[in-house]
Amino acid sequence: MLWLFQESLPDFEETxxxxxxxxxKKWKAKIEPGAIKGAAMRGDMDMLRLAIYPPSRSSxxxxxxxxxxxxHVDKTSRLSRNLEExxxxxxxxxxxxxxxxxxxxxxxxxxKDLYSNxxxxxxxxxxxxxxxxxxxxxxxxxGVTTRTNENxxxxxxxxxxxxxxxxxxxxxxxxxxQRLQWLTCPIYAASSGxxxxxxxxxxxRGATFERVFWEQSAxxxxxxxxxx
Length: 228
What we know:
about 230 residues, mainly alpha, 2 domains, 12 helices, elongated, disordered C terminus
C-alpha cells in the first residue's frame, strides 16, 4: 500500500505559493516524515527502508536522503530534522541505529542535549535496547532533558521499568540525583509510581530523602504557587 501511494506522488513538490514563510510551507513527496516515524514506531525495518528509499524515486540507486549524502545529513535542514525526530519513535536499537547512521559520519553526530533527551525519553518508554545503545554511545547517564530537567533514572522510576532502572544503576546513575531542589528525584518518582520494590532498590543503592521535598513537589501541580 505504501509503495502504491509513493508511486502516485512526485519526488518533491511544494504546494504553498512562492514567498511563504519557511515554517508555513507545505509539500507533497514520496518521502514523508509521518511514514518514517510510523515505521520506526512499528519496529518494521523493511517498512522503514521503504519509507526512506521509495523504489519509484527518480534515482532509485542513490543512497542520498532528500538530496543529502548518506552519513552527512545536515541536521539544520527541515527534512533532516524530521528524520532526527524519528529517533524518538525508534522501537528498538536496530531501528535507532539505522536512522542514526544518516548522521554518524559528521564530527558530532548527535549533540549532548539530544543524547540526554533521547535517553530520558526511551527510559520513560522502557525501551531497554535503545537505552543500552545510547549509554554505549556515550550518553551521560545522569544527563537531564531540556524539557523537564529530569534524568533517565527518574523517568524510568516513574513508569516502573525495573530492567531499565537496573541498567542505569549498573552504569553509575546517581539514585539521589536531582537537578533542581523543587524537581522530582528518582525515589519520589518511584513512590509516586507505586513501586515499593523500586523504592527499596534505590535505598539499597544509597538513595536518601535529604532532597525530597514532598510537599513542595506536590505544589508543582498548582501553577499559581510554583517557586519560579
